[in-house]
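User: Could you write out the 3D structure of this protein bound to alpha-D-glucopyranose? I've included everything you need below.
Assistant: Certainly. Input first, then the structure.
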Amino acid sequence: MRAAAEARWTEWFARMPPVRPDLAERARMAWWTLAVNLLPIAGREGLVPSKYGYVGVWNWDALFHAVALRHASPALAREQILFFLDHQLPDGRLPDVVHDHGVLADTTDLPRADHARLAEHVGSANGNGPTRAPVPVTKPPLAAWAVWKVHETDPDTGFLAAVYPGLVRAHAWWFAASDPDGDGLPEYLHPYSSGLDDSPIWDHGPRAEPPDLNSYLVLEADRLADIAGALGRPAEAAHWRSRAAAHAALLVARRWDGARFTTLAGGVPVPVRTALDLMPLFTGRLPAGVAAALERDLRSPAFWGERPVPTVAFDDPAFDPDAMWRGPVWLNVNYLLVEGLRRSGFPDTAAELRERTLAMVRDAGGLYEYWNPLTGARAARATSGFGWSAALFLDLAAER
Ligand code: GLC
């Protein structure tokens, strides 16, 4: 028993990607965290967000986990993504959570005790007011992004062929079922679907459209183009490429007000300033002047400090350095922005953001769920041993 366990750990650590010396201790902790968070769930080996409070496989958590697992076991990375395609709904959406006894894919799947509280911020699919009807619950569209990252590390066209139809249906779902005003720019219909449950954006709900959602949809279309290309389907690849260009153009035309991207809640612009305002950088498809304005915004006192990026701007009245999604630094936001800065032509700012993020995690003492951007410490109610913090820290640290 003990010898077998020792052998498993030795083998796991042998596959840890190399990192520079000052990051080694925290990286080993991260690599260990990923292994201890593995559990048998719903017939697969799943990586849970944290054994402190989150036992199930969460949609975008799983995608971030896959980004790190690709270095050790591409098969295990693919498995995290397959959890959600296994349980794809007939209408094409991917569930928010998969657990042993079922999935969370709409509000009726939530525990009864949560219904009243959750109904407060929930928008109906075809109107403005709160609703009692079931509302779909999913997570931001990043599955094709994750699939392609695993593919870049370990090419497997068989896997691409297996997931491509499901990814196409998942992409289509947003336009068919999550765009209540039919303006071609989908919205989140539930706080959980945004992944930012407690963001002050939702104080203005129901239904919200921060600029990240349509940025992700642009990038997903580009990744569907890459996948179609790798599968030898040039006409489909060209179709997706032009969808990506058109969607980026629509986002800029409708939501860029000359100074910033607007966030809508309940169909109207709201004054909240969040890190998601900067996420159109993720597309790599912005006009140069717009991209430059976002990069300036990121480097302004609203978002830049020793520990960027606060999830709510430092100067926003809703900023709270300790409250979930109301100010603390989350590694997924930083990771996506580092990528976006690179794609948008700002390698130096990307490098600085990466460096500051790594230093914050190195110095804080653990793989927390989120960090206080003023002190760099674990935020008051954040859990620890958190999977995507471990995964994304490692992936950033492993880059040469
Ligand atoms: C919280 C986060 C959400 C995440 C989930 C599991 O609800 O707000 O983004 O997916 O925890 O970690």
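The first helix runs from residue 2 to 14.
User: Perfect, thank you.
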